Amino acid sequence: MRSVTDLPHPVKEEQHVWIPVSDGTRLSARIWRPVSSDDEPVPAVLESIPYRKRDLTSVRDSIHHPYMAGHGYACVRLDLRGSGESEGVLLDEYLDIEQRDAEDVLAWLAEQPWCNGRLGMMGLSWGAFGALQVAARRPPGLEAIVIASFTDDRYADDMHYMGGCMLSDNLAEAGTMFAYATCPPDPALVGGRWRDMWFERLESSGPWVAEWLRHQRRDDYWRHASVCEDYAAVECAVLASSGWADGYSNAVTRLLEHLDVPRKGLIGPWSHKFPHLGEPGPAIGYLQEVVRWWDHWLKDADNGALDGPMLQTWMQESVPPSTSYEERPGRWVGEPQWPSPRIERVSYPLEHHRIAAADERPGEPVAEPLGTAVDEPPGKSADDAVMSVQSPLSVGQFAGKWASYNAPPDLPYDQREEDGGSLVFDSDELTERLEILGAPSVELELSVSEPVAMVAVRLSDVAPDGRATRVSYGLLNLTRRDSQEKPEPLEPGRRYRVDVQLNGVAQAFPPGHRVRLSLSTSYWPLAWPPPKPVLMRVHAGLSSLKLPVRPLDGADHEDVRPFGEPEGAPPIATDQKQPPEQRWTVSRDLVGYNSALEIVKDSGVTHYEDINLDVGRRAFERYTSVADDFSSVRGESTWTMTFSRDGWQTRTVTSTELTSTEDEFLLHATLDAYEGSRRVFSRNWSLTFRRDLV
After folding, report:
1. pLDDT band at 546 (very low <50, low <70, confident <90, very high)
2. φ/ψ of residue 126, rounded to 5
């Protein structure tokens, strides 16, 4: 990335500004703005997240906020209530009070003498969620948002309950926020109150996953702040982006389809990162695009911000399987509208271990509607291409993370070992290039042996040498086949037709390769398995794969333009006092049949030179099982956070452990806090939750 120092406007920075909200709580903000804004007010852009502007996001923040300020904006990085130096406590994500706080802050910004009252919001992940959710509340002055790596559906398309299946990231992200919500404020900014503020956080905190386990079906808890419930509520301009390696690869196209506002979408090959820091590469000049967006909507610049395709995306080329990539080969393509009339959903019938050509079985009998029970096969014998699978718990150990953070390497590895415990359907060798853009899906006619069951569906690119690279995947809790709100148990042995949606993707399959579809009845540890092993029978002759095929007519939209090189302001100086450690280890003990996935994300100890602060951050996750004993699965997340300066030193250790029986989830959590070597706070939680058809 090119560090830009010759910005159009000199910038001034205020590291700690108190902003009062309506209940009297004071929130802490860091503000960059043009020096000239003292006399010539400018628009303000708010980023609001709980990840500590003072230290943990300060390097990232120093790249994009001063850059935008140097282009004529007051850029405000707010710590949410109960995080960083902000007063109060942080109890959960996307609460109504968080959104009301943001509205209060926007109103405060509009009243400042250096702000002209025109407002924007931006963010990645939590910050993008917040910007979209606040936009749906239509606060005065908010004219545009810029959001990256987000969702509009908190239940089924976040790290909680993908397709109604509980993800292990439900535990992992709860562990992350358990750690962040119990960190102390910096005494250098809040003075002697720091200990009282810290203890208020410690005493009010708890394992966030407990609340998420209380809501295992789609209810009002998840509907709140899920913008998909009412797209019409959003009335400002939206620039939305994400990456194909991210867990949030679906919401960009949904917004393009359902919003009725000026909007553009951008999807690259990236993991969970801003596009100017994008990994895998290529990273792009995203901040130039953001400034262009702000200039148009907040300064009325006639700069063609809406020119070009509505959706611009990276069409990925075939690559060998790897847990990380520096670059993903491909090209930028564009669609002038979404859904694109150029993209055809082509149905490929399934046969015995085979994906048939689209036109290979003309005159196919009409199937029953999806989700319904099937008593008699329509026009086929009951034994037509019936295939069975009962997957071992080992299927899923090479699945990678639900959302890739690219550190440690966390993308899916070679799928051949996963395929050994799955039903596999291969196409013939492709004779010409195939490109897909959008969300694949699979229609299945199946029966299962238990009332609670799931199906995991993987789409892979198989090279001539047999290596299989996962392209996309989808999960469905079959008890939620008709409704996420009102799940129903299955009748063992009865046949059902279901539709499994896979994550959206742009992918090219070259000639000589094969397309592979793999079905499994578990996908641990990416998703929590059903209460018992499940035997699934699939009627392949009445099932099909549907791909969003993009034509090979060479008519990439003519307005697709290359992006500039990544730019940003020079990052602040830091010193690595202890080296980081990254580890991702799969192990199997063939004596006791114990299997484990262990993940270490240790940032070492970083010294922040401008504030003379040392910060340490270490996360450890462990997911285990024994043989195919579904009651043996266990997930653990432990975080250690340290802060020190001169004689001041604190440490928090948070640990969350989740196990299950056939009927219950069992949660145990601990929190220990230290000043120096002395433990000053300790608390344990042991909670039980009924399994709600999960």
Report:
1. very high
2. -55, -45
Neighbour tally for 302: CB within 10 Å = 7
* Distance from chain centroid for Cα 346: 28
Residue pair 615/511 in contact (Cβ under 8 Å)? The answer is no
In a domain, 211, yes or no: yes
Shared-domain flag, residues 510 and 372 = yes
pLDDT in tens, 622-652: 999 999 999 999 999 999 999 999 999 999 9
The alpha carbon dihedral of 129, 132, 135, 137 has a sign of negative
Say if CB 123 and CB 217 are below 8 A apart: no
- What is the C-alpha separation between 184 and 83, in angstroms, rounded? 8
Q: Which two tokens stand for residue 377?
A: 């096969």
CA-CA distance, 4 to 62, in Å (whole number)?
Answer: 12
Residues 374 and 481 occupy one common structural domain: yes
Whether the upstream peptide bond of residue 529 has omega within 30° of 0, thus cis, is: no
Q: Note whether 631 and 509 are same-domain residues.
A: no
Query: Tell me: the pLDDT tens digits for 278-334?
Result: 999 999 999 999 999 999 999 999 999 999 999 999 999 999 999 999 999 999 999
Instruction: Print the SS3 string covering 268-287.
Output: ECCCCCCHHHCCCECCCCHH
Which CATH number does the domain housing residue 376 bear?
2.60.120.260
Same domain, 600 and 530: no
pLDDT of residue 156: 96
Residue range of the domain that includes 175 = 156-215+574-609+612-694
* Residue 432, CA atoms < 13 Å, CB-side half-sphere: 5
How far is the CA of 521 from the CAs of 352, 453, 484, in angstroms?
A: 18, 7, 19
The answer on 592 and 528 residing in a single domain is no
Q: Which two tokens stand for residue 363?
A: 């005159």
Q: How many CA atoms lie within 13 A of 663 on its CB side?
A: 0
> Do 284 and 278 touch, CB atoms closer than 8 A?
yes
Distance CA 165, CA 183 (A): 31
User: How far is 600 from 440, CA to CA, in rounded Å?
Assistant: 33
Contact call for residues 179 and 652 (beta carbons, < 8 A):
yes
Q: Three-state DSSP class for 256?
A: helix
Q: What Rg, from alpha-carbon coordinates, does the chain have? A: 25
pLDDT digits (tens, 9 = 90+) for 342-356: 999 999 999 999 999
Contacts of 43 (CB under 8 A, 6+ apart): 72, 73, 74, 115, 116, 118, 119, 120, 294, 298, 299
Is residue 268 included in any domain, yes or no?
A: no
Residue holding tokens 């996963």?
418
Residue 644: phi and psi, rounded to 5, are: -150, 145
To which H or E segment does residue 437 belong?
strand 434-438
**Widest Cα–Cα separation across the chain:** 81
For residue 160, the one-letter residue type is H
| Mean pLDDT computed over 374-383 | 50
Query: Cα–Cα distance between 437 and 507 in angstroms, integer?
Result: 7
